[in-house]
Amino acid sequence: MKGKTLFDKIWEAHVVKTIKDGPDVLFIDRQYMHEVTSPAAFEGLRQRGIKPLMPNRITAACDHNVPTINYKRPVDDPLSEAQIAALERNTQQFEIPFYGLGNPCNGILHVIGPELGLTQPGMTIVCGDSHTSTHGALGCIAFGIGTSEVETVTATQCLLQYKPQQMNIIVEGTLQKGVTSKDLALYLLYKYGTDFGTGFFIEFSGSTIKNLSVESRMTLCNMSIEMGARGALIAPDSRTIEYIKNTPNAPKDCGKTVKHWQSLFSDSDAVFDKIIKVNADEVPVMITYGTNPGMAMPLDGVIPDRTDDKKFVRALRYMGFSSGEKLIGKHIQNVFIGSCTNGRIEDFRLAAEIMRGKKVAEGVTVWIVPGSNHVLEQIKAEGLDTIFTNAGAEVRLPGCSACLGMNADKIPSGNYCVSTSNRNFEGRQGAGARTILASPITAAWAAVKGKI
Are 147 and 181 in a shared domain? Predict the structure, then answer.
């Protein structure tokens, strides 16, 4: 009998029923819910006269549409206000735990879930948001779902799912100084493209992954979606256990639970559908130049020549770049440090270390946006807010902010923004905005230099 992968073990433990020649009925341990993809789901429940089956297994917060200058209500955009107000009403009516604006635990769902200890190894987790894969860093199966599926899970705590193929990305070696898990993610996209993970669930493993902090692992799993994967996960270890032990919802029977967590790993003879091996020593500092995360290159690299590719030509035209051009020395106007990709305390510590005692370059606007109120409090407690403010950066309230143009934090048309978020799509940060993805270290240097 062959061994099982970590994914196999978690999946099989959650199968309620297998439909012949069809999908599995999968039990969902936790659903995260935000203001954008939930209103229609609740309306569907009302029309059918259904209540949430297990409301305590749902956790809701507003993150996409919230303002980050202040939480004054109503927010300026009528649609955003309507969605925020709807989530408040719906969670109150159906008695769903809700971390609203101003709540000491509020923030981006993919940040607050792990820091509250609601995300735990061995779980199945869903949310109406593609970057739910972030939670896989703690050793669980986590993936995004559509609005109709949000309704299904709310009503039944189950979901019809076909089991995906499995890929193991083994990373061995030591990341160079200044190279982060964000660079590793962009390197994988640079090397293999944005579709190499299509149809797969990825497990990241190897000595490099074991040496990453839990927060860095979250960044890597978050970016697996840009690789086309359904999601990603990393086997829980002592770092994971230590991280969860310090959270408000850590299990009371820690000994017994930890023993179970320690059994969650891929067996040595487990079979994967695809294996990719990466040498961490070869991973450079990375940056993007185009309009998808796969259009990435080493920081000191040269934009390739693909004039026969119409999409590539359009991307360069939008970005105002040319084949054969280097980006080092390119002037920028905005820097955004935050998002569910790089909005944790570790990210701000890295940025603050660069910006300490320096000034933001003239003509550059820098937004420091923590992923949660807890992270904001850590920033203040460690004096990082003083470092940022003295440098001329603006520390804002938690939210998705300039990751996407769904709130007031938009990048002006034509401006270049070095961003620690996960996507650089055309207009992603606002109509005409030009996004350059990078790590917090690279973004902080751009802030003080005024250029890449």
Answer: no
Is-cis flag, bond preceding 74, omega within 30?
Answer: yes
What pTM was computed for the model? 0.97
Give the span between the Cα atoms of 214 and 204, in whole angstroms. 13
What does the block give as tokens for 361? Answer: 């370059």
**Domain span at residue 78?**
6-161
Same domain, 217 and 178: yes
Whether residue 219 is contained in a domain is answered as yes
The encoded tokens of residue 431 equal 């109509």
Report d(CA 274, CA 280) in Å as an integer: 19
Four-residue CA torsion sign, 277, 280, 281, 287: positive
Smallest Cα–Cα separation from 332: which of 436, 403, 203, 220? 436
| Tens digit of each residue's pLDDT (9 = 90 or more) over 53-77 | 999 999 999 999 999 999 999 999 9
Q: pLDDT tens digits, residue range 392-429?
A: 999 999 999 999 989 999 999 999 999 999 999 999 99
- The residues, ordered by sequence, that sit 6+ positions from 290 with a Cβ below 8 Å of its Cβ are 312, 315, 316, 319, 321, 424
